[in-house]
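Review form for a predicted model. The reviewer records the input and the model, then writes brief findings.
Reviewer: anonymous (R2)
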Amino acid sequence: MSLSRAPRRTLLAVGVLSAALALSACSGDSNGKSGGGGNTNFVTNTGGIATAPQGKRASTGKLAGETLDGKQLDVADLKGKVVVLNAWGSWCSPCRAEAPHFAKVAKDLKGKGVEFVGLNTRDPNKQPAIAFEEDYGVPYPSLYDPQGKLILFGFPKGTLSLQGIPSTVVLDKEGKIAARSLMALDEEKLRSMIEPLLKEK
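Model under review:
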């Protein structure tokens, strides 16, 4: 009997974890509070954007796979540029609110040493996500991550990781995690995460 209960306990634990993630996701929290605990070497300013100083930044894990348009993309190939990673879902209202700002900044900075990559998550099929990108004129690719595996495993514990939907991480030219926001961003806040990294040597 205990053997039959064990899988149920596992499923229950997974269900509780999924529910907790769902509750924390897509909240549109304007406080932008972020933690991490321990000696993480990052601070969060009053605008809810956490940053790590140059020389104290961590690398991401593997962030690669198939994009919404069926191509292969590996974020590691973008090293040498500032890379904006945005976790989003077509079902998420704060994602819809920030999408025009991301599309505008991505277009403005194209060819200026900045690349944008979306991480589309929890869309069980691609069609709503593709429609979302068309509706908002999103000019950059998104990795298709319906189960959130890239978000879960792509960032080492204790780093400025993507948490909740939407959230954004910006990588410096070395591919290191330099800044993070856990809330929907407008154009001004998004640019404030990118521009200091463009000036770095």
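Findings: The helical segments are 2-24, 93-109, 126-136, 149-153, 187-198.
Further findings: The CA atoms of residues 88 and 166 lie 5 Å apart.
Recommendation: see findings above.
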